[in-house]
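Record filed here:
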Amino acid sequence: MKTKIVIFTLILAFVFASFIGCTLGPVEVEEITVCKNVDSNYKPVDSTYVFPPETTVICLAVKINNFTPKDKLSITLIYLETNDEIAKQEADQEKSGSGYQSFKFIYNQGFPSGRYNAVIYLNNELAETVEFSVE
């Protein structure tokens, strides 16, 4: 009987320890890529920090770890020549996990020439700022 209790206790301890090893860490932005497009997995395609004149689409691919549906990820585009906020988007997350979130900004008339900031917020806190330009 004592042996069964010891074995049961060891199994219970092992199961508990394995659950601890599976817990998610804190949500974090690992990498931000400014690009011309994204693939079907939202990974960046044709990364660049300089876009040609008359560019109508600018994408940002954000690699994020431990993202849950409760977390909030958003990007605000600022046109630095006038310091105007020109666009804002928020990610929709249905499942927990790590991977890429993509943001596609479309400006049919073409983005004006100049410098831009993409300001990335994670849970309403500034996570990172990335600068790019249209020349």
